[in-house]
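Entry, Tuesday afternoon. Goal for today is a structural model of the target with calcium ion bound, before we commit to ordering more compound. Inputs were pasted exactly as handed over by J.K., no edits. I checked the ligand SMILES twice against the vendor sheet because last time a stereocentre got dropped in transcription.
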Amino acid sequence: MRQWLLPLALVALLQITGCGVTISCLLAPSITGQPTNQVVAVGQPAMFAVAASGSGTLGYQWLKNGVAISGATAASYVTPVTSSQDSGSSFSVTVSNSLGRLTSSPATLTVSGSQPGNLRFVAPNGSDANTGSISQPFQTIQHCATVVAEGWTCEVRAGTYRETVTPNSGITIAAYNLEAVVVDGTDPITGWTLDHDSVYRASATLNPDDTNQIFVGSEMMTEARWPNGDDLFHVNWALAKSGTDSGHIVDSKLPSVNWTGAKVHLWSGTDPFGNETGTVTASSAGQIAINIQAGTCPSICPVAGGYYYIFGILGALDVEREWFYDPTSTTVYFMAPGKVDPSTLDVRGKRREYAFDLSGRTGVTIRNIAIFGSTIATDQSSSNNVLDGISAQYVSHFTTLPTAPSDPDGSGFTILQVHVHDTGIILNGTGNILENSAIAYSAGAGVALEGNGNTVRNNLIYDIDYIGDYASGIDLDGDDNTIQYNTVHDIGRQGLYVNAVANQDVSYNNFFNAMMLSRDGAEIYACCNQAASGTRFHHNWLHDTQSLVSGPGDNLSLAGVYIDNGSSNFNIDQNVLWKNQAFNAFINGAGNGFPNSYSNDIHNNTVPDKSSNGRIRVSYVFNCTATQISDNRVAVPVEDSNNPSACVITNNSSNAPGATEMSTSTGVGCNFGGCSSEGPPAFQSGGSVSSCPVSVFAK
Ligand SMILES: [Ca+2]
């Protein structure tokens, strides 16, 4: 597994506090992430990790085939180099504190029979004219990946590789011996000269569109903007004032800059369930004229009280970390951190969209490789590829939400769909697997799950959809997909956007902190007029949905799961939902001309949430007789409102069965360093809800 898990696992341990500073909540150990099976080549080490929580200092003891391993007493364990005799061994770990001890599920080590004859090596100091042996390595991954045949492996040595790899089918590309390998989509920017004040300029050809990013080391810098601020989610918004309309923003705080030609980003309207962008066409004191996409008012629309910022103009470049790119003169302007000469820093611009392009490829495995400022693509003809142990940061970036060329459903909200399907890790085709990977920082999706029969398992996906459209932690298109054991958190809008509804298994995931830059949505959101078949959301944790700042539309749904506008036939059971701002589960039957919804079944979930807003709500289902809300363990009554016919709402109370299959041995979410989160509170005897979270839920 991954070298970076070691420090992250230690950090995760420090973060597990359960009840903050209170001392009344003493928790026995529990395992929030089980060790997973590992496959390594002969002669390589393997790494096993566990995520656990509990009060005080946790003790660990790893076991091989049930026998304690001397010295293996941390949250993760790296084996000695493996031989074929190790294949089939079972590894588990006992976790203990003063209140108890328990042993994890076993994980199996498989040692694959790769022999030196079908290995080739790549190293930054190699040459593509070499033979590819370990002492005469190639220099580029691309060269290795196109000269070896099916069944061969490219072993990549430590270093940074600036390329887009389009490999042969059937090969494996892996970090040799868990060395730190980065495939980087950025190139250095050099040749800086002082332009004015502390702003330097350099000649560089970046992209002519809205996808440019500038980095210093691993930190993303900020495209010049007003008001100043560089947090992708806790945005420093300006507030549009009285007089603002669909063609103007009025704000006496606007600095006296000629904003003509700048871009504007808005989170504004009566129900702003998406953000919008536009261009500034004229500028005067306290006012700008803007050109925004038509058709979204009043829901998503420039209005007084709406949030906005202006960006993409040199006149806005006035603080450290800000940059501006002029595509006409191919010049980058930059005020570096500390106002230093950028020549003294590692300044880089994004130049490549993909680290790996597996379009049309079959049977490629990419393992234990980090990617930066780029992502991995597949297409409709990609099949049976495996992405394992990928650590990806800044996968996709864009800043504008243009009108889409087509509007198939005629809703006029095509700005919501910008880059929903072609950003993040793009898993298209069939039979592909993304597992044991961490994906962070995407303006669009974290994973765009476009094809059929693909699997997304045991991944950590966070800081996604900072553009605030319908891109999601996981965008679910195509059918027959499996989404299990993922932790998905801190998302501009929904954690999971359900766009295809046949035979989807969404289970054992931990979704939280969705809807940070949006309204009227949920951790899991299905819309509109979707008729599901064989699709089940079960054994998930769905919690802590909230908009980061209040405003118009803030009283609408910010739910755990939300079946919206005429969608039908979803099965939602054995989930635990809590601390979602408005409704833990919500069926909104019909609206906006959509047909009636029917046959949604929400049963045997546990909702340990005392807030009156934490109820399960069923509204506007015009024929509700086939809708069932039953056996849910809830602290507040189910809301049955505006349903002209009776819904089947039975046995929901603090003494109902609830999620009977969620117990202390149930693993939820991913299971490596960084995956731990606070668990749900618990119902207590008598039906009250504890004020303390517990790491796993037990009735
Ligand atoms: Ca600025």
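The helical segments are 5-15, 141-147.
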